Amino acid sequence: MLENQNIEYKSSWRDEYLKWICGFANAKGGKIYIGKDDKGNVVGVENAKKLLEDIPNKAKDILGVIVDVNLHTTSKGDYLEIIVEDYPYPVNYKGQYHYRSGSTKQELKGAALDKFMLQKKGKKWDGVPVPKVSVSDLKQDTFEFFRKRAFKSKRIEEEVLTDSNEHLIDNLQLKENKFLKRAAILLFHTNPENFITGAYIKIGFFESDSELMYQDEIHGNLFEQVEKTIDLLFTKYIKAIISYEGIQRIETYEYPKEALREALLNAIAHKDYSSGIPIQISVYKDKIMFWNDGQLPENWTVENLIKKHSSKPYNPDIANAFFRIGYIESWGRGTIKIIDKCTEAGLPEPKYYYEASDFWLEFRKDIYNEEYLQSLNLNNRQIKAVLFVKENGKITNSEYQKINSIGKTTATEDLSELVKLKLLKPSGVKGRGAKYELK
């Protein structure tokens, strides 16, 4: 068996391997084998009986943990099995905090250490109390906004909404003893960035990944950021297609507003604010990408997000306030709602990407429309063909010739260019029977 999250092999013992015991104790526990090579083959260990006594004593004296050490005797030599349980409190090795992640050990420092310590204490980042800030320092206009929206949502008692700001903060559980929590600062303070670096949103319009055309920054508390960001996206960055029903003017946006709003709320509620990096929204001609520094719940992948799942907000106090005001649901349906709204609007299903702490949500607009195709400088034959494929699902070379009244050579050249532009893709057999579908 190869090394993994719970198994480590060492050919001999060194006292510095107490760091590995520390790492397992701070993670999910595990086993360390002394006297095995990296592939798990027995190579034997000297002084096995002495180590059988020394290792538990050193673990207890230096780390303050109890480990089981078992001696195994084989024809290839003796080896030791050290069994480490996960501990409910932080364990340190001479002031250093080590953690087992995957098949490696890492020393926790800075924000990672803060996050780990909070987790061991059963707290979330947004629940940490902040000294020297009182309810009177918070923004009155935001309290009034919250009361109006919460009254409509009917998710909080009316008597709470008519009481004092202090009572409202208590009811939202945004205080610990006499101190306001970080969530209260983010939600209601005039300028949360005085306390939390990077607590704002950036929007940029990109011609390409390297060519930024213009940008905006949205500051203020989280309620203000939500409203200002959505307004800016749909007045400056996203086009509306104008149509009329009789004399009534109808505006249909390139992306469903509900889906983008849900994406923004998810990014805010699940952001790791300890990173000090703002949420970033990148707008392109054919897509919008939401990025935030965040973490999926343990043992989750993006596959969990696209099916029914439980609600596990990274910042539960922020999420609770968002729920009370009617911004979000509390059943983990937000990601599915985003997909459904895009499907209803005839758009491609949005894509979720997650790597390390980078979390991306990508919306693709319907690029198979005449206005966008014209912007790519396609000829009329190619535009007609792409719209034909959109309606019929496929096109062949002979069909391309027929609808455009052209010869095979021209049809082949046109289709090859559409493939290079990634608008169409060949499918099926090559040659006379080749078919082309939307990319």
If you had to describe this structure to a student in words, what would you say it looks like?
- The protein is of the alpha+beta class and 439 residues long.
- It has 16 helices and 20 strands.
- It has helices at residues 18-26, 48-63, 110-120, 140-153, 158-161, 165-171, 182-188, 222-237, 257-270, 302-305, 316-324, 334-344, 370-375, 380-392, 397-404, 408-420; strands at 7-10, 30-34, 68-74, 77-84, 97-101, 104-108, 129-130, 175-176, 179-181, 201-208, 211-218, 240-245, 248-253, 279-283, 287-293, 351-355, 358-364, 395-396, 424-427, 435-438.
- The strands form 6 sheets. Strands 11-10-14-15-17-16 form a 6-stranded mixed β-sheet, with helices on one face. It has a 4-stranded mixed β-sheet with strand order 1-2-4-3.
- Strand 19 and strand 20 (435-438) form a beta hairpin.
- Helix 8 (222-237) runs antiparallel to helix 9 (257-270), helix 9 (257-270) runs antiparallel to helix 12 and helix 15 packs across helix 16.
- The longest helix has 16 residues, at 48-63.
- It starts with 6 loop residues before the first strand and ends with a strand.
- The model has no long low-confidence stretch (mean pLDDT 91).
